[in-house]
Amino acid sequence: MSTYQRVSDVMFEVWGGSAVIYNIMSGNTFLIEKFPIYILEYCLLNDFIDIKELVLSPDSEDEIIDSQYIDDILNSFIKMGFLEEIE
Amino acid sequence: MAFSIPIVIKVFSRHCEISDLTEHQWNLLISQARKAMLLAELYYLAEQQQILKTIPITIYRHLKSAQVHSEKQQNDLACELFHLIKVSKNLGYRLVLLKGAAYSATGLKAARGRIFSDIDVLVSYEKITITEAELMLNGWASSKKDAYDQQYYRKWMHEIPAMQHMFRGSIIDLHHNILPRTVKACPNAKLLLANIVDIDGYKGLCVLDFVDQIIHSATHLFYDGELEHGCRDLIDLYNLLTQYLNNGNSINSLVERSNELGLQKPVFYALRYVYIILGFYVEADIFTKFNSNTPSKLIMPIMDFLFIRALMPDHISCNDSWTELARWVLYIRSHWLRMPIYQLIPHLFRKSYKRITSKEKY
Amino acid sequence: MSNKKVDIYNELTTSGLIVKVGVFKYRICSPLPILGNSISVLYADYELSEYNDCSGFVDFHVLVKGIGGCFSALSRKAQFFVDDQAPFNALPKQHAPAIIEWGMNWCISSQINSHLIVHAAVIEKNGKAAVLPAPPGSGKSTLTASLIQEGWRLLSDELTIIRLDNYYVSPNPRPVSLKNESIDVIKDKYPNVVFGPISTDTSKGNVCHIKPPKLSVINQHIESPITWVIFPKYQYQSKTYLTEYNKAKALMDIAENSFNYSRLGRQGFIALRNVVDNARCYQFQYSDLDEAIETFDSLGS
Question: Closest-CA residue in chain C for B26?
Answer without folding.
Answer: C57
